[in-house]
Amino acid sequence: MSPFLAAQVADDWPPAAWRDTHVLAAVSGGADSVAMLRALHFLKQQSGGRGQLMVAHFDHRLRGGASTADAEWVGRLADSLNLPFHLGEAAGQSLASEQQARDARYRWLTDTAHQVGTRYVATGHTADDQTETILHRLLRGSGLAGLAGIPSSRPLSEVCEVVRPLLSVSRAQVESFLGDLGQDFCTDATNEHADFTRNRLRNEVLPLLREQFGPSVDDAIRRAGEQASEAQAIVRSLAEDLALAAAEVTRVNRIELQPSPFHCQPPLIAREACKLAWRAAGWPEQAMGADEWRRLLALLSTPDAAAIQLPGGVDARWVGDRVELRRT
Ligand SMILES: Nc1ncnc2c1ncn2[C@@H]1O[C@H](COP(=O)(O)OP(=O)(O)OP(=O)(O)O)[C@@H](O)[C@H]1O
After folding, report:
1. Which GO terms describe its biological process (predicted)?
2. Does ipTM surpass 0.90 in this model?
3. Phi and psi (nearest 5°) for 89?
């Protein structure tokens, strides 16, 4: 067992935090999640505890026979480690897009975690996934929240959360760990994203950046992500205060904004507070881009400006000393 990888996982997610609860390891059969499973299995054997480590695989039925072969392979790996195995399948038609496949997988993982009573679902996202995600979002023009990258944990429901114990382990370390163990894995179809840009970043852009600027580019990109994450936490907390003071979902499909508290806030905080109110009203956010939020903030800062139309059938206008947003 390569001491580095197990020690790194134990540092990031100490066994004391999970050895007494059940953990569902989401294993695609690819190198990353197989390495995560072997590391968690090793740490579990060392640390004992009342919890049970379990293996979960979701057959997306995307690649015909190949995806079923992966499912069988993961089942055999679980057997060989003496771990319970849970297999899910995409129902009916095969899932059309990568996003649909991902949504179906997380839904099934959450349902399975509820059924078997696991508090944690562990996934094998690595430091390389983190670097690619941050760079990809930077190129797509994401805001601070997006630039923060993949969180080390996030809630899946009120009773369970997803954790990423390999987030500071590189893919090269994964490969050397598996090599040392003599552990094979399925060809990682999950590494070939349908997303053309993501594949180019992984296979062309990042290798070129490393060649030109040295391997520290990965750390530099991830550090930017960490700082974005810290800054976003501050923005979020200030925006929550502002939303509490000046934004109210007054009835179904109506939000009232009190403009004056917005005036003394930087646009970043004001925009985030508007987003929080929008989310609290349950309105779809996807079509609200940077321009749309800017138009709403401009309306807020200009008393009696003409009404504006926003995506999702939202009308925003001054009514007396307030700005009212109505969704029709
Ligand atoms: N078919 C699967 N069954 C179980 N777990 C899976 C499966 N596919 C992926 N996973 C889990 O998700 C992790 C990340 O895989 P992948 O990079 O394909 O994710 P993704 O589809 O990009 O979505 P996201 O990054 O949002 O999870 C894997 O390391 C593994 O833990």
Report:
1. tRNA modification
2. yes
3. -135, 140
Tell which one of 125, 152, 174, 188 to mutate to probe ligand 1, the residue whose CB is within 8 A of the most ligand atoms: 125
Ligand 1: atom nearest CA of 150 is 25
Beta bridge partners of 255: 249, 325
Query: Residue 316: which domain range?
Result: 237-327
pLDDT digits (tens, 9 = 90+) for 196-240: 888 899 999 999 999 999 989 999 999 999 999 999 999 999 999
pTM attached to this predicted model: 0.88
115 is a domain residue: yes
Q: Is residue 76 part of a domain?
A: yes
Distance 253 CA to ligand 1 centre (A): 36
Q: Are strands 85-89 and 53-59 parallel, antiparallel or unpaired?
A: parallel
Concatenating the DSSP letter of every residue in 197-226 gives HHHHIIIIIHHHHHHHH-THHHHHHHHHHH
Q: What are phi and psi of 293, to 5 degrees?
A: -65, -40
Residues 244 and 191 in one domain: no
**How many structural domains does the chain have?**
2
Cα 306 to averaged position of ligand 1 atoms, centre (Å): 47
